[in-house]
């Protein structure tokens, strides 16, 4: 008899868990359906941080860029901004600015754009899948420093209030 009660409780608990998971999945699906993907205009600029041309300004760079120095064969650049956050399904209209005299590139999964010296380049990217994706410059001497990330938020998490879920809306 005691075994039967435990079995019934176990089955009831498992059933309740499965029903709860199904309800959460319906709320997430409804929230994802409620989010309307947007077109986002994002400007990214290349920025020199430590480059050979700065040796006169910063004397310590002479030894850093010298043969065997910590920056031998490297220059330190960055993307600004280096972290970009969008929502799954959004279309990103990138404006990529390279004001410098060095060649760069802007590389994401499924997108590689050359950034020639002194140019503005435009590119379009659709954030199809939620996750965190690396952004890099493919110029070997700029790696690993010239990097960033594209954070793609789940559409299901972006619009829970729009789907009428019980999840609290974000406060302003």
Word description of this protein:
The protein is 25% helix and 35% strand. The protein is an alpha/beta fold. The chain has two domains: 33 residues; 119 residues, Immunoglobulin-like, CATH 2.60.40. The protein has a four-stranded mixed sheet, with no helix packed on it. The protein has a three-stranded mixed sheet with strand order 3-9-8. A two-stranded antiparallel ribbon has the order 5-6. A hairpin with a 2-residue loop joins β5 and β6. The longest helix has 33 residues. It is elongated and about 55 Å long. The protein starts with a helix and ends in a 14-residue tail after the last helix. The C terminus is likely disordered.
Keywords:
disordered C terminus, alpha/beta, elongated, 3-stranded mixed sheet, 9 strands, Immunoglobulin-like, about 170 residues
User: What is the structural class?
Assistant: alpha/beta
Question: Mean pLDDT, nearest integer?
Answer: 83
* DSSP, total strands: 9
- CATH topology tier name of the largest domain: Immunoglobulin-like
Low-pLDDT segments, ≥5 res: 161-172
* CATH architecture designation of the largest domain: Sandwich
Secondary-structure element order, N to C? HEHEEEEEEEEH
Radius of gyration: 25 Å
Q: How much strand content do the residues show?
A: 35-45%
Reading side by side through the largest sheet, how are the strands ordered? 2-1-4-7
CATH class of the largest domain: Mainly Beta
Count up the domains: 2
Q: Which term fits the overall shape?
A: elongated
Number of helices: 3
- The CATH superfamily label of the largest domain reads Cupredoxins -  blue copper proteins
Helix fraction?
Answer: 25-40%
Described by strand count, sense and barrel closure, the largest sheet is: 4 strands, mixed
Distance between the termini: 55 Å
């Amino acid at each position: 008899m005691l075994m039967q009660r435990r079995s019934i409780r176990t089955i009831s608990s498992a059933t309740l868990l499965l029903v709860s998971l199904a309800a959460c999945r319906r709320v997430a699906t409804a929230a994802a359906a409620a989010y309307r993907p947007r077109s986002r205009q994002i400007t990214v600029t290349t920025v020199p941080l430590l480059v050979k041309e700065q040796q006169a300004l910063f004397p310590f760079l002479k030894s850093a860029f010298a043969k065997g120095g910590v920056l031998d064969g490297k220059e330190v650049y960055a993307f600004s901004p280096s972290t970009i956050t969008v929502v799954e399904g959004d279309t990103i209209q990138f404006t990529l600015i390279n004001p410098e005299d060095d060649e760069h590139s802007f590389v994401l999964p499924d997108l590689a754009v050359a950034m020639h010296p002194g140019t503005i380049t435009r590119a379009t990217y659709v954030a199809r899948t939620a996750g965190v994706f690396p952004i890099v410059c493919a110029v070997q001497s700029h790696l690993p420093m010239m990097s960033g990330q594209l954070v793609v938020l789940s559409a299901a998490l972006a619009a829970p209030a729009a789907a009428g879920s019980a999840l609290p809306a974000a406060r302003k």
